[in-house]
Each structure stands twice: as structure tokens, then as C-alpha cells.
Fold this sequence. Notes:
Elements: H1 3-14, E1 20-23, H2 30-35, E2 47-50, H3 75-83, H4 96-105, H5 110-120, H6 126-134, H7 136-141, H8 148-156, H9 163-167, E3 178-179, H10 180-190, H11 201-214, E4 219-223, E5 229-233, H12 236-248, H13 269-276, H14 283-286, E6 291-301, E7 314-321, E8 336-341, E9 346-347, E10 359-362, E11 368-369, E12 389-393, E13 410-415, E14 437-442, E15 464-468, E16 472-473, E17 488-492, E18 496-497, E19 500-502, E20 513-517, E21 523-525, E22 536-540, E23 560-564, H15 567-582, E24 589-591, H16 597-600, H17 610-621
Parallel strand pairs: 1-2, 6-7, 7-8, 8-10, 9-11, 10-12, 12-13, 13-14, 14-15, 15-17, 16-18, 17-20, 19-21, 20-22, 22-23, 23-24
Antiparallel strand pairs: 3-5, 4-5
Helix pairs in contact: 3-4, 3-5, 4-6, 10-11
Amino acid sequence: MNEHQLGEKLYRKLKGRKYLVVFDDIWDCRVWDDLKMYFPDDKTGSRVIFTCRDIDMSLHVPSAKPAHVLRLRTGLESWDIFKKVFRMGICPRGLEEFGQVINRKCEGLPLAIVIAAGLVKNNLSATWWEQIAASLRSFMVSDPRQYIDSLALSYNHMPSHLRPCFLLFGAFPEDYEIPVTKLAWLWIAQGFIHETGSRMLEDVAENFLMDLIKRSLLMTQKFKSDGQVKTCRIHDLLHDFCLRKAEEEIFLSNNYRYGTLSSILCFPLELGKSLQEGGSIHIDTYKFLKILDLESILISIFPLDAVHMINLRYLAIQANNGNPCASISNLFNLQMLIISSRKSIVVPKTIWKMVNLRHLYIKSGENLIEQVIQKDGCPSPSALASLQTLSQVSPRSCHNIFSRTPNLRKLGFCGPLISSLGDLEFPNLGPLSRLQKLKLLNTFSYPKATRSCNPIMFPEKLKKLTLSNTGIDWKEMWTFAWLPNLEVLKLKFQVCVGERWETGDAEFQKLKVLKLHDLDIKQWICSRDNFPRLQCLVVHRCLELNSIPKDLGKVSTLEVIDVKSSLYAQRSAVEIQEEQHSEGNYFLKVHTWGFPTSLMGVELKLFLNYSEWNGILDITRQ
Length: 622
């Protein structure tokens, strides 16, 4: 019979009956589109179930219920799977300790658990199990036939533009936790990301990352305060698959190898060792290199020879003295320049010639940017139209430069931000119409409480604002409530002075995340109306704070309260959660420093100093 005849026969067999049909491992929604006419819906309680590795597939299949996303298995669930290979589902006596180690190393991936169990089920000697526990990955990957075909399906059904992005994970060592921002920059530097209409390459890269996550190929490790993925990694089996596939497709040249030193990132092994020992770069060997990442090793000075590697797109260094030389502009293809320096640095004025530069990321210090002045005394019109990130720069060197960086999206000031009159001030950000993230780290000490600035000094599209050491009076906080698109507000180390914050009539209309770090505040008074859309509240190291405002528990959007501060503040957070639970709201989660619930109810008659506080923590941990 042909397909249509088979379909008609199936329809007649199922007509009027109650049936359950499972379509396992579907890769194309057109499968259901072609077959659904042969499955009668007679309201008999019949069900059709799809399984797929791509969560987006569920969006194309009409369903009465949302997709059930399978997660990695918990420790107990993994152990149940592991035991199933043995008779009666019982792990042999005396081997359970090794079995648990093996089980944990599988990280909840059922495929890995089954492979690991298969390695040990026919040899019940403690010596063998101990060897497997010590070197599980090497044993699993020694026979790729156990898993390679299953993983290859995911790769073969992957769009061509995602394949090189996925294979790059093989460049990192196993179990390495990869910052997604760095990953996106590496993809761009390698040329894996291409323009899509008017969208920024970084936005396209973010979509690629989410696509890989939805295809169940990446494990998300940490999240940013706004819920976006901060770090990710890849399972050992997929890491081995990437290495094999990269070798098969000659993905990376032999000259581009990776080494492991401290917190490993990617760099040619021999070159890294040579520079660490004071050697030079053999340009002919590395003239085609696009990525030079020396961030995981400490060298003495900025590598002068690197300016001759004209194909570089990505350059990251960690040095005692990270001052780039003026000839850095020779790297006209450079897109990312990342510098970790023990000393503050001066960015040479030749930087304005690097028209392809997208991210200038300096990780510490109060750093200066040299100004370019024409003969008539006017600033040079040179522009960095592609620049999106500029961090840790002194506000003193940033006057009259932002008209030349129109697409800047992330900016960090480090330097004097308080005027002689005690006002918060910084260079004009008016030209930065695309700025979304701003950090203000003040280094100027003022004897009194300072005043905030006019809200119009901030760009309208600003979403994330971090303030540190500004010494603003708490009464001035209302000015930040006027920022129309502010979603994340982080207040760190002496950002405000005074014992009391009363929000009054201020309304942070779109604020989703509020973080308070290292503040001397004792009393915080606010209502649910002040933060109508708050989702996450973080209060860390505010050791004098007496309580979390009770009314915040009534904010309908609030999901998390994370408190690592005074015992009283932690206890009040737990009380908020208990009250919400009593009203049927189990959506709100409260995280504290790990005190047992019973200890939360203890009335302390004495204030605890910091050392006594740590003593309680030590006892609790023990």
C-alpha cells in the first residue's frame, strides 16, 4: 500500500476507539501536518504525545496543554535509573559508595547514566568500580558507539549557521563554565555571526545561544539578575562529540590549540607559555590567528608584538602593566579588546582609528582615554560607530567623546563623580540614545551626604543602573524612580548614607530587580505601590538592617527574596514567605544564609558583631 492507503486503514482501525499514540523524537512539525488527518478525534479521551529535542517544535503543534520540558534528573532520580540495570533494581552491597560517585559525574543526563551503568554491571569488583568512578569520562568516550549516533541526530538536524557555534564548545576544557557574553564575542570574532537586517551581531548571537539551549545541547549554570543566562557549559559526552566532529570537519587549524592554566580560556598553548616566560611572538606562526586570549595567564606588560597580528579580531590580556602602545591601531580588524591590569591604564588616542572595535572592556582601575585634538583646537571627528561596550573609564577623560560613539550600549565610569558642591555629576550622556546599561563607581570622598542629579541626565532607554560609593542621601533616591525604562537597580557599598530609607510616593514603575549590597541602612519603609513590578529583591551584607518591608510580600510579581544580611532581616523575609504561603501564594521563594528554620524564630537579646555573626555561621555549617 502507498502512504495514503496506509493512512486510511489506520483511520478505520482507530475510528470510535480510545487510543494513545506516541511520536518519539520528532524533528519536523510537518510530520504531524501530514498525518493528523488519519487520527480521528471522537471525544473518547484519546491522546497523541510528541517527544522532541527542540522545544520550539511545540510552538508549531496545536495542543491543549503546554509542552512539558524535561529537565536533568535529580540525584535520587539518577540513582533510580542507575540501579535499573541490576537484578531487582538493587545496587550490589559494598559498591554503592562508588556507584554514587559515578552517578554524580553523569550530571543527571539519562544517556550518560545508562552508559555508566553499562560499564559496571558485568564487573562487580570494587577495584573496577573505583577505576570507573575516578575516570568516568575517559571510559565513556573510549567507545563512542554507545552515544555518538544519538548525539549526531541533534547535530545533523541543526541549521548550518548553528553548527560552527556549537563546535566551538570543544575548544573549552570539559566542565568549563563559559560566560555567555564572552562566548558571543568569540562567535562574532570567528565570523560565525552575520548581519541580519538592522540587528546588532550581539543580538543575533544571543538568539543563537537560546536556540542551542532550546535544542537541549547546553546546560545553563548561572543567571543574571534580570533572568538572562550568565554562564553555560556542555556535558562531557557532547564535549567529546564536538572534539570528534571538529577533527572530522577540520574545524580548527593545528596551530590553534588550547591550554589549561588556572581559569582556562582559549589561546594557543605555546604562545601563552612563551609570553609568560618573557618571550616574544613569532608573527609568521600566528599571522592568521583571529583570537588571542591570554586572560588566564599573568604577563608583565602588554605584548608589543601582538600589534603586528593584523588578522586579530579578539585580544584579551592580563598584565601587571596593561597599557596598550600607540601602534595598537595597526589592528584595524580588532573587534574586542579586553584588558585586566594591575595598574590603571591610558588608552592611546590612536584607538579612534580602530573603526571595527565593538567592545573595549577594561576590568579594573580608573583608566584614561587620550583625547585627539586637531590643529584648530577642535576635537577630532573620528568616530567608533561600532563600539558598544566601554568600561572602567574615568569621567575626566570622557567629555565630548560620546558624540563619536553613537551605538554605545554599556558604559562604566570609575573616578570622581561628586562635584565640589556635593552633587552627583558625570559627562553628558545625551548623544547615547542606545545606552541600556550604566555603572557609576565614585572614587571621590565627600564629607557630607551628597545630592543626586536631574533624571534627564540619564538616557531614556536606560534599563540597568549600578551605583557605588556615591554617598547620596536616601531622600534623593526618588530621582531614580523617574527613569522610565529602568528594570535593574543595584546599590552597592556606601551608595547612600543614613539609617533610614522611606520611599514615600516614589514609584519605580518598571523595576524588576533591586539589589542592596554593603549598606549601613537600618530601617527601610516602603509599600507595594513603590515597586509594582518587582520580581527579585537581593539584600546582601546590610548588617544593620532590622527587617525587610512586610508589604513587599504583597507585590504580585515578586518571585525571589534573597537575604544575606542581619539575622533580623533574614527572619523577616522568612515571615513574609510564611504569610504568603498561608494565603496560598507558593510562588514566592526566600533564600537566606542557610540558617535552620528553628533558628530563625529565636529572639536574640544582643546585637551581634561581625565576628560573632561568622561564629554562628560556622556552627550552623558544622
